[in-house]
Design brief:
The chain contains eight helices and no strands. It is mainly alpha-helical. The termini are far apart.
Length: 138
């Protein structure tokens, strides 16, 4: 974050911002949780090139980082998550077995339109079923 603040102070061009954003996207995320770098990527998103902003958006979708995605879309694209983004985040939550009581499921429903709402509900129910099955004594 200190480096991002420095780049802002000196008025660095987009190419320099891209180089900073590339580090967590390509190298660090292989070894550390991406959630640690989400605030940094969000801060960089308004300064990087269009191509890098798109890479950050794809990263947020692939890793189920809904709040960061919503913030990025609002700041850089002036839109809400579309149906494919909602579906991909929901699939990530299902795949990683995000707890059925986690607030992200409700947030996904709030952002989804009618077509996606059923899809999100189905994935949420699958997670609930798995959680209930795990607590069945044998």
């Amino acid at each position: 974050m200190f480096l991002a603040e420095t780049l802002e102070i000196i008025g660095a061009p987009a190419a320099e911002w891209d180089r900073v954003a590339d580090f967590p996207l390509e190298r660090v995320l292989q070894h550390f949780p991406g959630v640690f770098y989400t605030p940094l990527l969000s801060a960089l998103a308004t300064h990087v090139s269009t191509e890098m902003c798109e890479r950050i958006r794809e990263h947020f979708v692939r890793h189920g980082e809904l709040r960061a995605l919503v913030s990025l879309l609002r700041l850089c694209y002036y839109r809400r998550p579309d149906s494919s983004e909602i579906r991909n985040v929901a699939e990530y939550c299902r795949k990683t077995m995000v707890s059925s009581s986690a607030p992200i499921w409700q947030e996904l429903l709030e952002f989804s339109v009618e077509a996606e709402a059923g899809f999100v509900v189905r994935l949420h129910e699958e997670v609930q079923y798995e959680e209930e099955s795990d607590s069945i004594p044998f």
